[in-house]
Automatic annotation (TrEMBL):
<keyword id="KW-0597">Phosphoprotein</keyword>
<keyword id="KW-0175">Coiled coil</keyword>
<dbReference type="GO" id="GO:0048786">
    <property type="term" value="C:presynaptic active zone"/>
</dbReference>
<dbReference type="Pfam" id="PF00536">
    <property type="entry name" value="SAM_1"/>
</dbReference>
<protein>
    <submittedName>
        <fullName>PTPRF interacting protein_ binding protein 1 (Liprin beta 1)</fullName>
    </submittedName>
</protein>
<dbReference type="GO" id="GO:0007528">
    <property type="term" value="P:neuromuscular junction development"/>
</dbReference>
<feature type="region of interest" description="Disordered">
    <location>
        <begin position="205"/>
        <end position="241"/>
    </location>
</feature>
<dbReference type="InterPro" id="IPR029515">
    <property type="entry name" value="Liprin"/>
</dbReference>
<dbReference type="InterPro" id="IPR001660">
    <property type="entry name" value="SAM"/>
</dbReference>
<dbReference type="InterPro" id="IPR037618">
    <property type="entry name" value="LIPB1/2_SAM_2nd"/>
</dbReference>
<feature type="domain" description="SAM">
    <location>
        <begin position="132"/>
        <end position="163"/>
    </location>
</feature>
<dbReference type="GO" id="GO:0005829">
    <property type="term" value="C:cytosol"/>
</dbReference>
<dbReference type="InterPro" id="IPR013761">
    <property type="entry name" value="SAM/pointed_sf"/>
</dbReference>
<feature type="domain" description="SAM">
    <location>
        <begin position="45"/>
        <end position="103"/>
    </location>
</feature>
<keyword id="KW-0677">Repeat</keyword>
<dbReference type="Pfam" id="PF07647">
    <property type="entry name" value="SAM_2"/>
</dbReference>
């Protein structure tokens, strides 16, 4: 059954409700071990938005009933439908989904707080940091004496996987999101030093390359532009009833294949 069939026969108007049903029907043909994302219901996904630092979209996601399967196959077009256009937020969702895939959609994979027995002066490995929630990142900021600015990360979309995996995310962007004044150069240098230690040498090298490349710098307010469909995309073959368009996924299926630490 295709999305258009569901709209006609069942009167399901919301595009993501239709997508959810199509994915659920497709999952029926899979084994449980292949449908790991199916373990996460829409209530879990709404709570997960807190983890990735995007609680402002909770009502939108709740209305769309986005569960683990839909989250896994969210497209850029879906996000536009949800009126999410901030580029940093798109990247936040992308890297958050990447971590869920890497953790086989284990519901408890995100680390929300430091463990009581953790040595607070021990540097976490980048692999550990990728599992940090937005709250855990704020906890780290308090530990490195930036408590005054930590709460500014609420609603920013910053979490561990974005910090580590996203080449365009650097210390300068983090300083901007934290609203550390440009004239407070000592504090910005302090953040940069700790940021480097957190991310690790290999990732820092990738971030420098991204900065030196032709890619436009990421800013807190940058918007994602809608892609105009070319003649080629319009002429593409039609998808079969059970086939999903995987060309436009917010988190491409090959994301993470070369991200192992």
């Amino acid at each position: 059954t295709s999305g258009s069939d569901l709209e006609i026969k069942l009167g399901i108007k919301h595009v993501l409700h239709r997508k959810k049903l199509v994915l659920a029907l497709n999952a029926k043909a899979e084994s449980e071990s292949d449908d790991l994302a199916g373990r996460l219901d829409h209530h879990w996904v709404v709570r997960w938005l807190d983890d990735v630092g995007l609680p402002q979209y909770k009502d939108t996601f709740l209305e769309a009933r986005i569960d683990g399967r839909v989250l896994n196959f969210l497209t850029v077009e879906d996000l536009f439908h949800l009126k999410i256009t901030n580029m940093l937020h798109h990247l936040s969702l992308r890297r958050g989904i990447q971590v869920l895939r890497g953790s086989k959609f284990e519901p408890g994979c995100i680390k929300r707080r430091a463990d009581p027995g953790d040595d607070k002066d021990r540097y976490s490995s980048p692999t550990e940091v990728t599992l940090w929630s937005n709250h855990r990142v704020m906890e780290w900021l308090r530990h490195i004496d930036l408590a005054e600015y930590a709460s500014n990360l609420r609603g920013s979309g910053v979490h561990g996987a974005l910090i580590v995996f996203e080449p365009k995310f650097n210390a300068e962007l983090m300083a901007s999101l934290l609203s550390i004044p440009v004239n407070k150069s000592f504090l910005r240098r302090h953040l940069t030093l700790h940021f480097r230690n957190l991310v690790g040498r290999e990732r820092m090298s990738e971030k420098r390359e991204a900065q030196e490349g032709n890619n436009a710098l990421l800013t807190p307010t940058a918007k994602v532009k809608t892609q105009k469909k070319t003649q080629f995309t319009l002429a593409r073959r039609k998808k079969s009833k059970h086939e999903l368009d995987l060309d436009d996924l917010i988190c491409p299926l090959d994301d993470g294949e070369d991200e192992e630490e």
